[in-house]
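Example record for the data management plan.
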Amino acid sequence: MIKVGDTLPHTTLMEYSEVEGEGCSIGPNAVDVAKATAGKTVAVFGLPGAFTPTCSAKHVPGYVDHAAELKAAGVDEIWCVSVNDAFVMGAWARDLHTAGKVRMLGDGSADFAKATGLTLDLTARGMGVRSNRYSMLVKDGKVATLNVEGPGKFEVSDAQTMLTQAANKSL
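Corresponding structural encoding:
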């Protein structure tokens, strides 16, 4: 499993864009993780799936609600990563009003989840291999903090924990 001090894996996530801009066309666009985190502080949180109960009611809304505070604490971008395709992530973004606050990034084949060792096997529930629930503060592509939830828990990957960590300038 990835740990504090490690560099994020060289993988690609996908983001659905509804409008053209800054080199992005309408539709799914590739996001090279290494390039997108270079020189930035990024709050990344992963979760098992779009439109699932805890993810939709608590996890994403917390980051949307605290986006301005996170940015004031030095976070350049906030990423939500889930093992879903870019179209589903785009629909979920519209539903949760994340535009301009949280980038909703699809890890459709679980490449990022597997490369970080942050997978969750939900095959018995008909969901296959998914992302575990976690959050991490990434500075210039390296993991500065990592908060991995225990099975069925939502206690340490929330936006408030990330805000506290981002505000601690010594990390």
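Summary line stored alongside the record: The first strand starts at residue 12 and ends at 17.
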